[in-house]
Predict the 3D structure of the following.
Amino acid sequence: MLHYAPVSNQESLMIHFAEHSVCAEETNSPPLLDPKIMASKSSKRRLHHISGRFALSKISQAKEGDELQIVHGAGGCISRDGRIFARCSISHSDYGAVAVMTPPDVHVGVDLEPKDRKISQGALNLILNEEEQNDPQDEHSRLRIWMSKEAISKALGIGMSISKDITHDGKSWMAKGSRWSVNRYDVRISDVDHIAMVALRITEET
């Protein structure tokens, strides 16, 4: 069954989890599907895409004719009649998907991973800055750092190329002149424990 976890806070964040196995049985297509991805030869890629859109449809009230775009510096934006009415982000694992949504003035990003995912040292070297590489961290901590940077980069609509410039000052994350909070959500999807990390921009630096 679908997992639903609404979150009420000052950012009006909404979050929804979906299992691939459930979405595969759905007969109605959700809105905001990307024709290019749906034309892919990979059935796995199509299913992941559909699951993410199903999750987003549960919280966005999106309808046919609406558009979802990734905007550089702004992340995922849903527009209707040329006007942005929400920001959003989607992430997938091999078991399910998560979608988050906020009002148009709140940047948001999400990353979803199985709790036991192992990040290779080569990949970590690409995202961790020198201070983070020298800081003794256990594997779970490094996964959360990876996911936090991924969520922030998605909220900005920028790839992980900026990951080494995303830093933590002991209180919050800093990226591109903005301060970010990153919250963790634990969820079980298809009998597999997952972590979702949700990034929200909290202030502009002056």
